[in-house]
Amino acid sequence: MININGELVFQADQDWTSNRSFLYGDGIFDTLKIVDGQVLFLEDHYFRLMASLRIVRMEIPMDFTMEHFEAELIKTAQVNLCADSARARITFYRDSSGFYLPKTSQVKYVIRVSALEQKSYTCSTQTYEVDLYKDFHVAKNLLSTLKTTSKMIHVTGSIFAQENGYQNCLLINDDKNIVEALNGNLFMLKDKKLTTPPISEGCLNGVMRKRVIQLAQKVEGIQVAEAIISPFDLQNADELFITNVINGIQPISQYRKKKYTGELSIKLTQLLNESIKS
């Protein structure tokens, strides 16, 4: 079952053909992880979502408090029997007629959940090869930092990765600098300095990105910086990894002919799990 504006309904009963998110990509979404009936990083998700709605000029429902947000997510996970470990996606869309110009900016939301196999984050040591996706570029603007329902670059990039036997691809902006991976933020370690692209480069303002920056600052000997990363920098890096809320930290094992270690990824995953339990 799915949750539409607080009402639990069967997905097959819904007609999405007039939904503005379907027609125009006029929507904002977020993906969250639920463990043991608790939404991880709830506050960070909530405030990022509210800020995103304001940026795209959607009206925030007066009753949509953080407590209401959490309750609706948990309710949907419980009715689908996966509140112990679940992936949840909430999508806000403008509930209005009109063409490019909507008649109103009132919104509705849809929550979908699915079960996850593991509660704790794990750090995979399997082969994880990436390359650049250069067919389309990410724009360096505020809209690129939001999780909108217009993700055609990420979709076509994912198809490109599958066709070429890669586990992921890295996106670039118009300046040919690295922005992020298809499904998360990118971090690069070189000589004890951990770098991730700044938001101004067009990358997602990721919840796990924020958490990993905080955790890395606690690791002795590691310097953390937000700075531009060029494709050339990747060839000289000691370690690369991708972060998102569902998978945690995913080490990259190879970019072209360059292979990487995963020592910091393992350490940060351990710290991440400890921070959740505390």
Characterise the protein shown here:
The chain has a six-stranded antiparallel β-sheet. Strands 9-8-7-15-16 form a five-stranded mixed β-sheet. Helix content is 27%, strand content 31%. The chain is built from seven helices and 16 strands. It is an alpha+beta fold. The longest helix is centred in the C-terminal third of the chain and has 15 residues, at 263-277. The model has no long low-confidence stretch (mean pLDDT 95). It starts with a strand and ends with a helix. The protein has helices spanning 20-24, 42-55, 66-79, 152-163, 207-216, 231-236, 263-277, and strands spanning 2-4, 7-9, 27-35, 38-39, 85-94, 107-115, 129-138, 168-173, 178-181, 185-190, 193-196, 223-226, 239-244, 248-252, 254-255, 258-259.
Alpha plus pi helix count: 7
**Global structural class:** alpha+beta
Give the strand content.
Answer: 25-35%
On the 0 to 100 scale, the average pLDDT is: 95
Rg is: 19 Å
Sequence stretches where pLDDT stays below 50 over 5 or more residues = none
Q: What is the helix content?
A: 25-40%
How would you characterize the largest beta sheet?
Answer: 6 strands, antiparallel
Gap between N and C termini, in Å?
32 Å
Helices and strands, in order, run as EEHEEHHEEEHEEEEHEHEEEEH
Question: Got a strand count?
Answer: 16
Strand order of the largest sheet: 2-1-6-5-3-4
Shape: globular
